[in-house]
Amino acid sequence: MVGIIKDLDPIEIQKYQQNRYPCFFVDCIEEVVPGKSAKGYKNFTFNEWFFPAHFADEPNVPGFVQIETMAQVFLMTFLTLPGNKGKKAAALQSKARFKMKIVPGMRLDLFAELDSYSRGIAKGRVRGFVGGKEACLLEITAAIPDIMTQFMPKIS
């Protein structure tokens, strides 16, 4: 059994997943229970690269950034399992809901749960909170292609 992993900074997080700047968004993974859950956060500062282009007169976090940030925390639920560290992962399906506008200066706290993981395919959800209020939700199915393809039928 794999133990709880705590307090991963961006350098440590990137040892588990392949996301890099400018599309790496997680500031800290506070806790991972491999195969079960992950908890992390993102602090949005005014100097983020996307704010000047996303409503300069009223900057807010674009939906795609919220989705990608939630997905990166979700990846930690299964990339921390033995043999998965550093493997490439891809989203297969997602459904996002946004409940509030996130602006510079806010911290997005993320809680990911892994519902199932089999044959390289992971299903679960991530809930995002700002100041204790639910801000966004993501239902996601992701995969590790290297593992998933081992179980696909061979066509001759």
How would you portray this structure in words?
With 156 residues, this protein is an alpha+beta fold. The chain has three helices and seven strands. It starts with a strand and ends in an 8-residue tail after the last helix.
Features:
156 residues, alpha+beta, 7-stranded antiparallel sheet, 3 helices, 7 strands
Helix content: 10-25%
| Spatial order of the strands forming the largest sheet | 1-2-3-5-6-7-4
Average of per-residue pLDDT values = 94
**Low-pLDDT residue spans:** none
Task: Describe the main β-sheet briefly.
Answer: 7 strands, antiparallel
Structural class, please? alpha+beta
Q: What is the tally of helical segments?
A: 3
Number of strands: 7
Radius of gyration equals 16 Å
Shape: globular
Topology pattern, helix = H, strand = E: EHEEHEEEEH
Write the layout of secondary structure elements.
Layout: E1 5-8, H1 10-16, E2 28-33, E3 37-43, H2 63-79, E4 90-98, E5 107-118, E6 121-130, E7 133-143, H3 145-148
